[in-house]
From TrEMBL:
Protein name as annotated: Helix-turn-helix domain-containing protein
Top-rank taxon, per record: Bacteria
Amino acid sequence: MRNLFAPVMTVAQFAECVGVSEGVVTGWVKREYIPTVKIGRHRLVNIILLSATLNDDADILDLPNIIEREEVATKATEYQQKSNVEHQHWEEIKESFDMRPRNERRALLKKHGSKDAACQWLVNQLNSAQ
């Protein structure tokens, strides 16, 4: 089951959320403009701390002038709302996966490694078709 709100995001997810390239976000991470947390070998953007900092209007973060703090908060809210919509349809997508022919399900599982990954691929296919 997917979470309605993710407390952390990958650099790629955060870049999509705020509308910049991964390279820009990677630079922000290296310069410590945005808070991150390391989980295992992965460095993830700490959305909870970022939101708290933006909401408190504290000067902990020194984001570049490219994106204003309010714009980052707005984009993060939009991303969260998009995630909520996806969650509402997640069970339907999993059911549609189960209804596919067995050979197709097996091929998707082999290609993506898990049912959730295969379902996420299906979501991405649906989104790109629209």
